[in-house]
User: What shape does this take?
Amino acid sequence: MSSSLSPVVELSSISTLSTKTTDADDNEVKTSTNDNVDDDDDYEVCVLSQGRICICDSCEEERTKLESRKKRKRMPEYCQPAKSDAELEKDRLTKMTSACKTILKCIGEDPSREGLLKTPERWAKALLFMTHGYSLSAEQVLNDAVFTEDSHKEIVVVKDIDIHSMCEHHMVPFTGRIHVGYIPNGKIIGLSKIARIAEVFSRRLQVQERLTRQIVDAIVDAVEPLGVGVVIECSHFCMVMRGVQKVGAKTVTSCVRGCFESNPKTRAEFFNIINR
Assistant: This one.
C-alpha cells in the first residue's frame, strides 16, 4: 500500500514545489519589470543625432571636457607674445599677395606667367605705401616743431604742395595741389610740417572734402591760430579713366576756420595770394 501511495505523494510534492518556483519567478519578473520602469524614468534619451541641442548626461560630460580643454589652451591677451612690426608687415603682404592673385584670375589673367610672377607682391607693397598714412598721426609728424612767435600776426601761406591720394569709392588715385594759409596766434609751425600733415591724411583712402577738413583741423589743434584756410584742387582718375572719362575736369574744395571764416577781407586776401 505504501508503494502504491508513494507516486501520489511524490507528485503532490513536485506540484507544490512547482507552484512555489512559479511564484518566485513571477516575483522576480515583477521586480525586474519595476526596476526597468524606474530605470526608464531616470534615463534621458540623447537627441544630438536629430540635430537638436542635447542635455543628456553623456553630452553634458563631453561638453564639460571640451570647455576645460579650451580653457587650458586659451591664453590671456596680456600673456600672448606681441607680433613685431616686421611680422605684422609680413602677414599683411602674404594676405594681400594672395588676394591679388585671385583678382588676376578673376579678370582672366594667368598669375603664373612670366610678366605677372612678382606682380602680386609688388602691388601689395605699392598699396601699403600709398596708404601708409594709416600708420601715422599729425602729432607724430609734427615732432614738436611748433615754436613761440608773438611778432607775426599776418597770413602765412604755403601753396602748391603736391598730394597723391586714393579715392575710397573706386580705389583709384586722385592727384593735385594743396594750398594752406594761417594767421599765427603766438605760435608758428615748421613749414615742412604743413606738407607732412597733408601727407598723413592724403595717404589714406579718402574723399577730397574730408581730406580738406582734416588738414584744417590738424593745424588748428597744432598751433591754435587766429584763422586757417585750406584749398585743394585735384584731378580724380575715377572721372578720367572710367565713368564720364573727362580728362580736364578738376575738383576744388576749401575749408576755413576762425577769422578766415568770419572776416570776408581776410578770406579774400588768402584766396588772392594762392591764385597769383
Q: What stands out?
A: Residues 2-42 form the longest helix (41 residues). Residues 171 and 205 are 7 Å apart (CA to CA). Strands lie at 146-149, 156-167, 173-183, 186-189, 205-206, 227-236, 251-258.
